[in-house]
User: Which sequence fits this backbone?
């Protein structure tokens, strides 16, 4: 039974309308904010019966300060956190369309298109928290924690609560409820030394996706501990794509290293939404490797030839080589030719022996000259290649300077374009909030979402209507729009490093005057 009651005023400003979630550690209520013209919000109250001691409250502040500044379209934004009567509480946008659990209860199994949508959106949310330093591990991925902000917009809730803080809550509330949701828990949580890392969230998401396809959890709800006992990963029923079956099988592997990353899951979902197919293109391995340069090989060839030439010079008799280039050498060659024409000389003829020796020396000298010519050609090619290399290096330096200038210009243009897009989106939100054609509930949700785009509650909103200048705080101006219909034109915005709006210049006029 809930500790709090309907119509209670909590923390002096929130009227509790309806309980929308309850666990051993917390209660979640749909409420109206009396300080924001009855704006509809969701309020999550931890340890509502007894509150926390000083140690628990310090844990709460430390842990939620880590996630408070996270901003992602598929992470449920915490707009405010505080403590009342020893119980920490969070203020979040109200999700009127319920959770993935309610979707399963109402519609049964999902189409592959909707499975891909959840993979894309929740995968990107997990990628965001896993990329923090240190990584934030959700540790409780399940349909209850995947909410619908809009019919086609899923958001991940209840992230950033560590196992240590859950243990503190369990002790504070004297609740014996298991903090682990067994049906979605990975096998490493049942090890002799339980642990969790980003791949643990992937396993739980895989179980959730399997439930979306079959309307039941694998292993009859016994969770990943079954894999430690030799069970297999169940296959999807016939009618589902073999590729989707492989993806879910990979997610629910007992071996953590074989599970995909959140970025891969998000990419697969996005690819299916764009093409209707699961065969995701192969990842690029990076930039194309530079073409091989043959200059180092040519230099090595030159060194080898030089060594060979040195050996030849030592081997050959330089006096014989010189003689080959003199008149005596020429005469000796002629004598050798004459002797050859007379037939084979006698072995004991010293003149014939001398001629044969000189002939052999001339052949070696000729080989040396041929090698010298080859060496000269290689050296000439090496010099030409070195010139080409120097010219290429100079060209790259000039190109790099040009590219840097172009990149700086592109960044400036890109930033201006981003601001224009952000201004248009903010203008659309402001006009939706102020348009009475929409239901009050939807407008309240848009108001909370618009508030999350501002850096903090003290953002300057400069109203330049009618030539005068009025300054508002963001929350006050949004409340004004919510209660009094106006047409808004955003003229200029300023943002911080996290792309949060820090200042807005705009003009407005009542809707009746603009029609």
Assistant:
């Amino acid at each position: 039974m809930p500790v709090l009651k309907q119509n209670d005023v909590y923390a002096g400003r929130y009227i509790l309308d309806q309980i929308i979630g309850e666990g051993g550690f917390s209660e979640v209520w749909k409420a109206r904010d009396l300080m924001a013209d009855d704006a509809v919000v969701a309020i999550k109250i931890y340890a509502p019966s007894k509150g926390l001691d000083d140690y628990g409250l310090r844990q709460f502040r430390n842990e939620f300060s880590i996630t408070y500044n996270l901003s992602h379209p598929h992470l449920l934004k915490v707009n405010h956190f505080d403590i009342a009567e020893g119980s920490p509480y969070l203020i979040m946008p109200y999700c009127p369309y319920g959770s993935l659990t309610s979707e399963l209860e109402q519609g049964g199994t999902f189409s592959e298109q909707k499975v891909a949508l959840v993979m894309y959106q929740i995968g990107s949310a997990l990628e965001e928290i896993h990329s923090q330093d240190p990584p934030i591990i959700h540790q409780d991925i399940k349909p209850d924690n995947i909410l619908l902000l809009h019919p086609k917009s899923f958001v991940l809730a209840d992230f950033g609560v560590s196992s240590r803080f859950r243990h503190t809550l369990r002790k504070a509330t004297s609740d014996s409820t298991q903090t682990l949701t067994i049906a979605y828990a990975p096998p490493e949580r049942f090890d002799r030394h339980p642990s969790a890392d980003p791949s643990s969230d992937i396993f739980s998401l895989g179980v959730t996706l399997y439930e979306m396809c079959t309307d039941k959890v694998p292993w009859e709800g016994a969770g990943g501990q079954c894999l430690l006992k030799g069970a297999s990963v169940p296959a999807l029923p016939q009618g589902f794509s073999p590729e989707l079956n492989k993806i879910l099988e990979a997610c629910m592997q007992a071996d953590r290293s074989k599970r995909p990353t959140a970025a891969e899951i998000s990419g697969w979902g996005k690819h299916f939404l764009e093409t209707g197919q699961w065969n995701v293109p192969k990842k690029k391995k990076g930039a194309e490797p530079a073409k091989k340069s043959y200059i180092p090989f040519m230099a090595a060839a030159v060194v080898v030839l030089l060594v060979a030439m040195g050996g030849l010079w030592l081997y050959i008799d330089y006096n014989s080589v010189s003689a080959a280039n003199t008149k005596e050498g020429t005469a000796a060659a002629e004598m050798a030719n004459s002797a050859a024409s007379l037939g084979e000389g006698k072995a004991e003829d010293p003149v014939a022996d001398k001629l044969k020796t000189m002939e052999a020396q001339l052949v070696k000298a000729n080989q040396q000259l041929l090698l010298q010519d080859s060496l000269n050609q290689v050296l000439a090619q090496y010099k030409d290649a070195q010139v080409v290399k120097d010219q290429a290096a100079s060209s790259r330096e000039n190109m790099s300077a040009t590219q840097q200038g172009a990149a700086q210009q592109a960044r400036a243009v890109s930033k201006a374009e981003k601001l224009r897009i952000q201004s248009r989106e903010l203008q659309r939100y402001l006009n939706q909030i102020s348009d009475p054609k929409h239901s009050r509930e939807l407008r309240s949700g848009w108001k909370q979402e618009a508030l999350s785009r501002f850096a903090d509650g003290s953002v300057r909103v400069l109203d330049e209507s009618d030539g005068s200048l009025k300054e508002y705080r963001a929350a006050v101006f949004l409340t004004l729009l919510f209660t009094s219909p106006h047409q808004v034109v955003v003229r200029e915005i300023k943002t911080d490093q996290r792309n949060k709006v820090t200042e807005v210049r705009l003009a407005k006029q009542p809707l009746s005057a603009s029609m």
